[in-house]
Amino acid sequence: MAFIAESVASAIIDNLVSRCFSYLEACPAAGGMKDELERLQHALPQVQAVLTAVEGGAPVMVQNRPVETWLWQLRDAVENAEDVLDELEYYELQKTIRDRDDKVRGILSNCKRKFDSFVNRIFSDDTLKRLREAVKGLDRVIAGMGPLLHLVTGLYGPRVKCQKLEEIKNARETSSLLTESEVLGRDEERDLIVEWLIEPGDADVNVSTFTIVGMGGIGKTTLAQLVYRNERVQEYFDPIVWVCISQEFNVTVITKKILECVSREHFGDNSLHALHENLKQKLTSKRFLLILDDVWNDDKMMAWEKLVAPLKFGQRGSKILLTTRMRSVADMAAKVMKCKQESLNLNKLEESDYMLLFNKHAFLGVNPDDYKNLQLIGEQIAKKLGGCPLAIKVMGGMLNSCMDYEYWKKILEKDNVKLQQGNDDIMKVLRLSYDHLSTNLQLCFRYCSLFPQDHMFKRKKLVNMWIGSGLIPQSICGRERPEDIGKEYLNLLTRKSFFTCKTHDNRVEITKKYFMHDLLHDLAQSVSLGECIKIGGDVAENIIPKTVRHLSVEMLNLLSIREISNLKNVHTLVISVKEDNRHNADHALEFIEVIKGFRKLRLLILDVNFHSYKLPNALSSLIHLRYLSLSLWKVVNESIEYDGLTNLVNLRSLDVPYHVIENIPYISKLPFIHKLQNFVVREKSGYKIGELKNLRDLHHLCIMKLENVRTSEEATEAKLNEKEYLKSLGLRWSEGHSNSAEADEQLLDNLCPHINLKKMRIEQYHGAKSPCWMTNLSLVNLTSIELIDCKRWEQLPPLWQFSSLRHLFLQGLHTVKQIDCSFFGSNSGCAFPSLKMLLLWDMPNLEEWIGIDDRCMFPQLQSMSISDCPNLRGIPTLHLWSRDLHIYNVGLIAFQQ
């Protein structure tokens, strides 16, 4: 059930009522809404109560069509209101930008414009009509809430919820006894945990923790049972205690369970104090092993501290072994016990093991050799299950009930064989993890169903898409930036085992890539039905519900767009067209007209091979757009200006071809834009470097044709030193430009970036000196520096002082003759402590590399390339021969050394 979060709905309704009342006072034309607004204000607490009850009741998974229908109606009404509020903010932002620009141009002078006249001007169009409709729509939906109050209380009330949770708890209760006669594929993991358990541990910590982390159904409990039954463990620890925690982290109940296991006695309604004292006495000087199975609590620090208080009196070498789906639980347990966090991420079974397990259940009670025709198809089905033991057991058992080729083939051809065949056991296990997420995290998780299985998520793109699609509204951000909240959401989902994170060090930077297990991807599709849909092939063959908010479509041709033209509530639209549309101008025009009808769009990605020059400007009416990608669009006329794009003042992410960026005049009208990979400076109004002044959210920027900046004072108008979020900066002059060395030096001195900058590239600079800001210690966060074709640069800057520098690329510095102590530094400290890659290319006049002596130099260097430096007579002995070293067209002496 993809309902809207109570906090989000309440914030939007409250904001709508508040702002409408202010407009009523400022604008007589906005009358006629007062009665509805007062009713909304009065009904808001009831709406909050209903949504809170539904959110709180989500884990019991009660399905009720009237409630779901009303929730979708409420969501439609709330989002309609949000659209109108966004539109009002859009016009206010446009006015602010226009007033700012007018002031800069000296137009306003003594002309004073009042807010109330602005409001009247807004309401002169159909915005007022939509505002009234939004208010009335909410009023109608909330008026229909009355009959549902009793129903919601009955379905999701405390008594029903407790009853359902008790049923879930009983179903999930575990013990130390293995239910399988044979466990396949976990010997290595078992031995690793046993070795850790019987190690003495730190001298200053009596009790330490080890956590088995993995998604639901992956075999954590079974592995813990194997460890419990291990002979070495049985001999080393006394007592050994098994307690199943499950969802309710009740300290008194858990303590009583531990005490009863240790003493083998029953304890009644004892106080927590009495239980603690008794348990402390039982465990003092005992080397115990406590296994806590199925732990969920990762945020109640005080509860944890109460639980472990008597456990700390155990003998040195005592251990606590936990199983959980969330890495955050491992962090919490280690933090409370003040020990090192030790954990094992339990991965899927290897192919040989999961095939043995599958065959064991699929061919139970029969001879597999009698079903040769099923073995190959069974292997293909098993591969779809992602190595998850629970899924393999359930699917194998289901197939075993019908040993028919056509039935097995039908199962294979299903997209979601894990969850679509009535496998409640799998769904319930996975759904528990989902139900423990906050509503905002659930929404972000569901959104990931738009991507294909095995998709590799890049953090920056996924977070930007979440923000672009409106999943992280400003109403929940407060003073925090949406990007920071999005990163935290991804971290939380990763720590709760919804994503697996893999890091990659490419020597320039450390990047992170995120993956989702196939079963979790299927879960995302299951819980997002009606909200997020991914369609491949012929659109006409798919029934798309009108409730869909986020849609990804792979079309066979442009004409398929007609099939989705009536979906007016879509916030996210990702379209990929397989056919080549370069010569299909009529279809392209129709495509553009249909796209313009999606007025609620927040995010638009078109992977379409267009050759129509009309597309970017045609999107100017989609004023809610935050994210726009036209990466495959082909430029047919490089002289056309795309001023229509500056109408999209809410844009944060813009991915279009370089020539489009070059031809957007007055780019300052996009104040939230994050990336300008090709800002070309011109002397023409609207393209000067001062356009960058107010773009304070820039993360990546490359400024081209810097020779068109006429004075060094004009360069300061870019305000690069105020762009605290800027991570990557490129500064480029055109090849063969005629500026003097002095002019370029003054210009570059006035393009000082913010200290947070991480990557910098300078090209075709004609100055002989380094800029003043490269000779001090301010840019401490730089990880990559590239100086390219700066042919008159004589003296290298003291780059040794950039302690975070990992990548250094010097190419085409034709005037540099010597690398000496000015480059390496003259003190005794370690120079370039983080550098991993060094490239020296096309430096024909470089003769000497001196000044190193016996200093610590390049301790982390992994790759070094020297090319086309024919006069370089020698390089120092840097113990590089066991690393990645490339030398080409370098002086003979250097090569011999």
Question: What's a quick, concise take on this entry?
Answer:
39% of the residues lie in helices and 14% in strands. The chain is an alpha/beta fold and 897 residues long.
Mind explaining what this structure looks like?
Helices cover 39% and strands 14% of the residues. With 897 residues, it is an alpha/beta fold. Among the domains are: 6-169, no CATH class; 174-345, 3-Layer(aba) Sandwich (Rossmann fold); 351-413, no CATH class; 427-527, Winged helix-like DNA-binding domain superfamily/Winged helix DNA-binding domain (Arc Repressor Mutant, subunit A), CATH 1.10.10.10. The strands form five sheets. A nine-stranded parallel beta sheet has the order 15-16-17-18-19-20-22-24-25. β17, α28 and β18 (759-763) form a beta-alpha-beta unit. α1 (6-26) crosses α3 and α15 (351-362) packs across α16 (372-383). It starts with 5 loop residues before the first helix and ends with a helix. Mean pLDDT is 82; it is low at 107-116 and 417-422. GO terms for molecular function: ADP binding. Residues 450-524 form the Disease resistance protein winged helix domain.
CATH architecture of one domain: 3-Layer(aba) Sandwich
User: What is the helix tally?
Assistant: 30
What percent of residues adopt helix (DSSP H or I)? 25-40%
Radius of gyration: 32 Å
The CATH class of one domain, by name, is Alpha Beta
CATH topology title of one domain: Rossmann fold
User: Mean pLDDT, rounded to whole units?
Assistant: 82
Global morphology: globular
**Proportion in β-strands:** 5-15%
Distance between the termini: 70 Å
The neighbouring-strand order within the major sheet is 15-16-17-18-19-20-22-24-25
DSSP strand tally: 25
Family: Belongs to the disease resistance NB-LRR family.
Pfam families: LRR_R13L1-DRL21, NB-ARC, Rx_N, WHD_DRP
InterPro entries: Apaf_helical (IPR042197), Disease_R_plants (IPR044974), LRR_dom_sf (IPR032675), LRR_R13L1-DRL21 (IPR056789), NB-ARC (IPR002182), P-loop_NTPase (IPR027417), Rx_N (IPR041118), WH-like_DNA-bd_sf (IPR036388)
Keywords: Leucine-rich repeat, Nucleotide-binding, Plant defense, Repeat
